[in-house]
User: Which sequence fits this backbone?
């Protein structure tokens, strides 16, 4: 039986809280030997501490941990992280801060060397996330397994081979949910233009997004095969797809241009 992980979580806001809920629900961590540090613990966090044995804001000398997970806002990291330098000296650090490089994290933590960067996305909050993970040179195989287990508790966890690839992942999976929400908005507006009432337009657009994602999760064929399965020659879907992405492949070119812009901006924001 796999040994549970002891974690010190720094920051239990929206994403840190999503991770913690996933760890507790999936019994990934040993709550009794883990801790959450947050300057203003939410009511749910206090309740989680009571129900699971998780320590809330204990003394920094109170325990040893398998992983230090950093989930604070990047702009607060320079002040928030130094108190955890002693823990980070011997412990794996997993950072989910956007735009904060391993070099900066190491500096804030007094020269820590065992650092993993992970970039989860919004669906991690419902256990359907996609996280890109990259590790510094000083991270061993056992520690990589710990990082994998922690991120896989809230969805897919995919390793990338360079820190710059985190920027590419940010453009695809990090920002990606917004692209699908925009498509949903466009479908809803188009439904109204075709004469459907507001409730029908909203419900059909949302249900279509949810259903397509659920179907892709169950049917492991390549996405182009799934697209062809819906597209009858000479039918309604083919008529629409020719507008979206005809011989000039306009949709694919637009998506590539958009994600390049997002990746470029992610690189510009990284310190």
Assistant:
């Amino acid at each position: 039986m796999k040994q549970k992980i002891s974690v010190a979580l720094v920051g239990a806001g929206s994403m840190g809280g999503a991770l913690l809920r996933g760890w507790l629900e999936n019994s990934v961590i040993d709550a009794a030997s883990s801790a959450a540090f947050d300057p203003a613990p939410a009511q749910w966090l206090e309740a989680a501490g009571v129900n699971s044995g998780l320590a809330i804001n204990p003394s920094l000398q109170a325990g040893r941990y398998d992983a230090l997970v950093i989930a604070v806002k990047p702009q607060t990291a320079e002040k928030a992280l130094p108190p955890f330098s002693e823990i980070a000296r011997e412990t794996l650090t997993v950072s989910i801060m956007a735009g904060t490089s391993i070099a900066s994290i190491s500096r804030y933590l007094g020269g820590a060397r065992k650092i993993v960067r992970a970039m989860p996305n919004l669906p991690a909050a419902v256990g359907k996330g996609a996280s890109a993970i990259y590790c510094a040179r000083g991270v061993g195989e056992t520690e990589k397994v710990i990082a994998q287990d922690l991120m896989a508790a809230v969805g897919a966890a995919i390793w990338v081979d360079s820190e710059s690839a985190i920027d590419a992942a940010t453009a695809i999976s990090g920002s990606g949910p917004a692209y699908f929400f925009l498509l949903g908005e466009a479908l809803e507006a188009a439904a109204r233009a075709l004469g459907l009432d507001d409730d029908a337009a909203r419900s059909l657009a949302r249900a279509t997004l949810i259903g397509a994602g659920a179907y892709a999760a169950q049917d492991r064929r390549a996405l182009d095969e799934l697209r062809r399965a819906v597209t009858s020659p000479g039918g309604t879907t083919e008529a629409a797809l020719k507008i979206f992405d005809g011989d000039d492949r306009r949709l694919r070119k637009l998506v590539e241009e958009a994600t390049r812009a997002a990746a470029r901006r992610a690189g510009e924001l990284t310190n």
